[in-house]
Sequence to fold (130 residues):
Amino acid sequence: MSEELKLLPCPFCGGTPELIDEGYKVVQCTKCGVASKAVLVLNDTHGVGNKKAKKEWNTRPIEDAIRAELAILGFNLDNALTRNNALENELTETVLWLESLKHNRDFPEWFYDQMHAHINVLRHLKGGEK
Ligand SMILES: [Zn+2]
Fold:
């Protein structure tokens, strides 16, 4: 027994599709009326025409390309967030290190101020708080 191919919702309106058998097979949206390519299989005793019509309806090259692109973007976003967190941790540690140096009398004030200015620029560039 073959597995029944489930029809995807209409790509244009999200409506429910139905398989129509008029000798030829076609899948059509019950809401907006858009239809797949008509499929005609002569002497079709094994439901080949139904399968082909359903496959035609479910073929979505643009959606597939968008899903693939979204997967890549999601992966890149995860990497960017990981790098952003690592940068934030590094900045926090650097500020703590600077704060510890501030109390050292031999440590020049101008260097402390300059380092803090650089850290603020980095925080601004990464989009965090100042
Ligand atoms: Zn539709």
About this structure: The chain has two domains: 17-59, 63-126. The two ends are 65 Å apart (CA to CA).
